[in-house]
Sequence to fold (88 residues):
Amino acid sequence: MKLVNIGFGNVVSSARILAVISPDSAPVKRVIQEAKERSMLIDASFGRKTKSVLIMDTDHVILSSIPPETISARIEGKNVPEHEGEDE
Fold:
């Protein structure tokens, strides 16, 4: 099982990730709201601006302050510094 850092020491299993998307569109905002209503939303952004939304195969929705491009590179195993994209 490969774990991927999604910011601020939080990690998720890369095998469980279905999609990493930007939170800007209205349909994604609806997905976030519906997940919140179903208690399936995990906010891992630590109060920072949400830059990516991870859709998991467990029906959980995870918010991260790391851009989707950085998370994607980490999933693919590219050499990306752990703090790149994190607003510290």
Observations:
- The longest helix spans residues 26-37.
- The helical segments are 26-37, 68-76.
- The first strand starts at residue 3 and ends at 7.
